[in-house]
Amino acid sequence: MATKLRLVKIWWRFVLLSTQDQFLTGWAAILFIIGKVVRFCFFFIFLFVVLSATKNLAGYNREQVIFFFLVFNLIDIIVQCFFRGVYHFRYNVVKGEYDFDLGKPWPAWFRPIFGYTDPLDFITLIPLWSYFIWFVFSRHLFTGVGDLVLFLLLLGNSIILGFAFHLLACSICLLTTEIDHLIWVYRDLTSMAKFPTDIYQKFIQFFLTFTIPVVILFTVPAKALLGLLSWPWIVLAFIISGFSWWGSMKFWRHALRKYSSASS
Amino acid sequence: MKKYLQLANLTFQDYFVYRLNFYLWRFRSFITFLTLLFFWLAIYGNQESFLGYQKSQMITYVVGVAFLRTIIFGTRSTDLAPQIRSGSLIKLLLKPIKVFKYFFTQDIVDKLLNFLFAGFEIGLVLFILNFSLYFPQNITTYFFFFVLVSLAIVLLFFISMTLSIISFWTEEIWAARFLFMVIFMEFLAGTYFPLDILPSWLTKIIYLTPSPYLIFFPMKIWLEQLSAEEILKAILICFIWLLFFWWLSFFLWKKGSRSYSAYGD
Hints:
The complex is a heterodimer. Chain A is mostly helical. Chain A has helices spanning 2-22, 26-54, 62-83, 86-95, 97-102, 110-114, 119-138, 145-176, 182-190, 202-210, 214-226, 231-258. In chain A, helix 3 (62-83) runs antiparallel to helix 7. The longest helix of chain A is centred in the middle third of the chain and has 32 residues, at 145-176. Chain A is globular. The model of chain A has no long low-confidence stretch (mean pLDDT 89). By secondary structure, chain B is mostly helical. Chain B has one domain (2-258). Chain B is 72% helix and 2% strand. In chain B, a hairpin with a 2-residue loop joins strand 1 (49-50) and strand 2 (53-54). Chain B is globular, with a radius of gyration of 20 Å. The two termini of chain B are 32 Å apart. The A-B interface holds A 25, 27-29, 31-32, 34-35, 38-39, 42-43, 45-46, 49-50, 53-54, 56-58, 176, 178-182, 184-185, 188-189, 191-192, 194-195, 199-201, 204 and B 18, 20-21, 24-25, 27-28, 31-32, 34-35, 38-39, 41-43, 45, 47, 50-51, 170-172, 174-176, 178-179, 182-184, 187, 192-193, 197-199.
């Protein structure tokens, strides 16, 4: 317990440092926030216009599709907010900076994953959560406390899955150092869940459930809150998440054993 | 000319040194294409027409966007900004080579390679799913499409160079690019949907920016949904934006490079 508390304290120190770093150039921070908000608004307007005309997407009405889009944004931004450090990891490996981390009293994966928490994502989360709660209640999408609890549990499950994928990306980075686009592949694949994943063909849905489990990350929590989730999916979500966690930890240890300080 | 051909050759080889990155980049473009394609297919369902577009026209639009994105938005001029900040630009300045031509040569190679790969990937999807695409009936349509796409390639190059050159005056190089190139340019270019499905007051504002002339208007020409007058107007506006960004990028470059002291790592 004491070790975990110490890690939380270290993480908080990282948060303060990354906040200072981000606001060092204030105008850049403002441009980033504007960019994130504008991107969200553009997609929202697009969905609203299209769905107002068609009324239906893969059996979901306009409100439900926008709900999926909001849940996607919530989970995506939370995961990005916590695990932004991964984007800096390749630089640290190539420059040899990561070697210094290995002698420090924390797990070897701690800094690559939690070393940079994005305060700008956190800022955008506040209005997004507020709007999401307002949207759910005003459009009568709230189906009961049981579904809410399940949604929150599956939200936590998604964060664990996000962690597992980011750790896998770090492991591959340790082995190859040539992995600039891998995390962006993850981002692009996950962006397929901006819309209900039922719109994709069966083999794509299978791929999005069992390879990079985008369906478990985004669609399953959203369906849980809508009260549309069956028990086998809930069990499957936790099994896939647990397996991903275990597998990524195992692969990380393997990658670390092969690591031979690749700095230039 | 010979040295730029040699540079093109080196750039080409460079892509195959870091093959994994290139394949992953292609995979990313492919995912974006698939997402958009399946979204629109789900929207259409059994309908043949939606918001003024026949199903085959919308599929053609999505396929066209995938190609045009590759050849218009794919640019290496983004590399200029980190070179300015790190000081490594000095290596380029000392060579008997023009910086603008250097990056434009790299751009052309990038676009050619990506175009070939995109052709293969998209062709495979179209073959498997057996879609019918819309091809223009009039030969002049191909000509105007080619003219506007060529202008769009050059326009995007100068916009991107302008954003990179700003690095002469600021430490932060990614924020402005993220906002203007990734968010505004791509979205307002019509890369996700045809812009004319938006309310008309909004499209009128968007048409005043350079973005729609990069993807949306070339695709409207291809789909033969513009009159001759509208085509000429689009080409003229694109050309005016091109002149503006050509002037701005050279103006900023002259100002920035004159006071550049190449400090960095």
